[in-house]
Amino acid sequence: MAFRTPEQALESMRDGRQVYSGGELIEDVTTHPRTRARAAGSAQAFEAFHDDRREIFVAEDPETGEEVDRFMVPPANAEDLLARARAIDFGMRYGGPSFGSDAILSLRWVAPELAEHNPMYRENIETAFRQAREQNLTMSIVMSDTKGDRSKHPSQLGDPDLYVRKVDENADGIVIRGMKAHISGAAFVDELIVLPTKRMRDDEPEYSVACMVQPNTPGIRIIERIDYMGESQFDHPLAYGGVGGECFVWFDDVLVPWDRVFQNGENELAGPIAYALGLWQRYSAMCYKKPTLEMLAGAAALSAEYLGIEKAGHIQDKLFEFAMTASAIDAFIQAAAVACETRDGVAIPNETITNVGKYTFASKYHELVKNLIDISGAIVATAPTEADYRHEDLHAAFKKYLGSGNADDGEDRLRLWNLIRDLSADAKAGHKAVLALHAEGSLAAQKMMTMRNYDFEAAKQYVKELSGISPPAGRYTPVPPSL
User: Fold this and answer.
1) Which CATH class is domain 282-456?
2) Rounded distance, CA 240 to CA 165, Å?
């Protein structure tokens, strides 16, 4: 197949989609100052299909033998899962495509179950999958509703539109209304994959809808939030170009043709869809969060070294926490692939290991940021800006007084503090702190899945056997210790 070029990807965004940012309707996301950098970044990822990175991101289609996007090849074994993991890791570090394939692969995985209710769903999913693979399309996962009062079910809310719902259907398709939140990349992709946020009650079928729509479909408005746009890459090496980028997607009575509908009112299908997507997303999350852990660990170790405190006992204890967490996530990635389960020819990462790994990252992240700030000191929040550092009256003094006293390293130390500020104490840090907890499912979601899978009954029976409460269940015969 022919992979798209960055130029072709940019051109595909000039399709009349309605994108708002900063209170303004953006006529062309590829040229407007608020969006052009992110549009260019999304498009530039396609260059990886054409340069020396292609061996990471290109794989052979097992059906046709053609070269295709690796993320659009369902993994068949542990080796494939690990190749996918390496591609996600590499892409986060050095740039590369990762365009929402978790959603379409998840739908394809549960398509047989969906087909039991309506064969059309499986046909539509297969068509969408093949089109995305053959046309090198990008996708966003559109799942989280705004929800309103979460103590109430959707149909109990004063406004029935606080969850996306079907408001009509006709010979042409279904009509959906509502708003989804926290949608990454929605302003720059080819397709929006709309999924139910959870299983609804039996009397709420209108909220159980899954479908695929193009961003320029009449009635769709995309609102992108950008918290901060750094003017100096020296001051903000990570935040330069913008912090945020998540979108609200408003469906204002949008017609979805029948051949793009994957679920239409079957509440019982929301569970399998959410389960499949959550598993795939959490495995991907571990892979793309691995470079973040390496950044935190490297920044902490380098900061301690620059400050001459790397051998202090309490600093070593903190550095151990970085090493332990990063090593644990790497082990979870490997183990979830090796212990995968194969269903219908598709290798699924081990569910328990994946959820425990994602929980480990999310629960440890903020502690690691605290340790990084503790090691680095107040300078990460009070360091001079580039404008002051470069000022002709001040530059020589800053180079001297920001240095270690042993070398001309004042600028190197300032550059490190600027990066640490982006990681721990500024707009970028706040954004990452929220995503660490809520992206790919909250801590509660990982707790629920882990608790559901752990066999407490077997554990209790084992203790009963050891305590003499009940006889062994045929698993072994206790041998009393010799005296």
Assistant:
1) mainly alpha
2) 38
